[in-house]
Design a protein that fits this description.
The protein has 287 residues and is an alpha/beta fold. It is built from nine helices and nine strands. Helix 9 links the parallel strand 8 and strand 9. Helix 1 crosses helix 9 and helix 3 packs parallel to helix 6. The protein is globular, with a radius of gyration of 18 Å. It starts with 5 loop residues before the first strand and ends with a strand.
Length: 287
Amino acid sequence: MNDPSMCIARDHFASTSASSDVDYQVLLPSDWEEGERLPLVLHLHGAMSSSASLELARPFYEDLFQRGEFPRAVVACPSTPTAGGFYMDWPDGASWEALITDEFPEHLAVKYGPFTETALIGASMGGYGALKVAFGDPDRFAAVAAISPAVFPGETPEDVPQPNRPSVLGDLHQAMANGSGDADTYVGNSVYGRARFNADRIRGAALPILVDCGAADEFLLHEGADYLHGVLTELDIAHEFRLVEGAGHVGPAADARTRDAIRFVGAALGPFRRSNHGVHAAGDHRG
């Protein structure tokens, strides 16, 4: 097992959580063999995207794999909707968070598992989903990396300024309260709400956390990322925070930042796990 390449597999399954057929893509070592036990990385795509996000990220995973900076792993990305999705469980609809936390990994384990551990990585809407899922059950995950996560500079529906919720971010803002404006529902779907409720568990799990955002994000997501950094610091939750000067939501810096996030996750997995896993210090990198 020394082939330095990775391959993409495309598949779908009938999801009970989503009450629909869900497409997904899997990236794994080309010489993977049935029965080999590897870590699982759940790669969550952004708004208005699909499992094709993993295919676009494949060159970064493969390059780091070839360089020895990402371990042998199964990386998987399901297609999830934006409207009516947002990695949430809807009271009268699909349960997309349950799909990510339970049903999808269980489905993958039948074909590619059992897995040694599970990590999360996501960008934009996927960054929101990855953080929310990880903070909801921190003992289950080996690491979480969020690139330009869709988080707001406020913790209740009324706290979020209008400029911070344009377009699809406004849809997410409403969806977090299931469209009702209910503050308790909103907090339950909030990364901050999960962090505050499970702060002791997150600290106890020593969950490696990366929050990365461009300081010139066109959707002002850097304001939410900075707010999240403040909340995690207040709660004494160790994390790495990167605010990249001059970088936007996409653009020339996006590729390098995605690579760094994948490298961060890889360092936390299996034999790549950092020697100080569990005692990593909070970082604040602005530059």
